[in-house]
Description:
Strand order of the largest sheet: 1-8-3-6-9
Order of helices and strands: EEEEEEEEHEHHHHHHHHH
CATH topology of the largest domain: Jelly Rolls
CATH architecture of the largest domain: Sandwich
Number of helices: 10
Number of domains: 2
Structural class: alpha+beta
Largest sheet: 5 strands, antiparallel
CATH class of the largest domain: Mainly Beta
Strand content: 15-25%
Radius of gyration: 27 Å
Amino acid sequence: MNSVFLPEDLICTDSGQKPPNQHHWRGVRDIFSLHYVVRGTGFYEVGHATYKLTRGESFMIFPNTEVYYYPDPQDPWEYVWVDFKGTESQRLLSMTKLTHEKPVVTESPVDLEPLFHQVEATGMAPFQRERSSACLHLLLSYYMEHYPQEKVLQKNDYVVSAKEYIENNYWKATLTVSDIVKYVSIERSYLFRLFKDATGMSILSYLKAIRIKRACTLLHSSKFSIKAVAWSVGYQDQLYFSKVFKKATSYSPSEYMKKNALASSGKEEA
């Protein structure tokens, strides 16, 4: 069965902004509801805990959980909110610190209010539902970034991230190890150590291996010139590419191409 994204995987059911007033609400919802305090102060009660929230802080109402939230009478809060549901909801939230046990997070390092305004529940046209879902994904991605669930960031994930970046960008002649380190966003020597432990090779060696593997695929087809293959795997100098390729495979690019052409025709000598 093909994996196809459907709007119902993550859908906004309501959103809005509540100006400062004495609005109270107690009850149980059957959806997720994320609130972000724009200004003022309020309180959120869930279970046996009471949380005091101020500007830049957020609280989550989880489905089938009794909650009570209300403003500080002396400094009533103003907040924005978005209600959502769908099978993607729990997976995305599991990558944040927002949990049933701790449904609040402290002040964000960036202003998240504009992102809430981008998420709208109006419209039934497919493009409107897709756009709403995309905006909601974007909003939740900021919570994943600024309030990451610690167990999500494990050692192996840094290596996987580096490998994926290399595999997606090997064709760039300007790609450097520094670019890869910057993308993964951890200390250089620490990434080197993790990568070597996981793969048995350095980041640079892995990059070369990916380039040579792709070059072999292109040369095997015999449709492309050696110069085109070199450029396609990140080498602007054809002679240097040939040197690197021969060192890795024991064949020059032209020899490799000829060898595979003979093999394909069944004429390769024993």
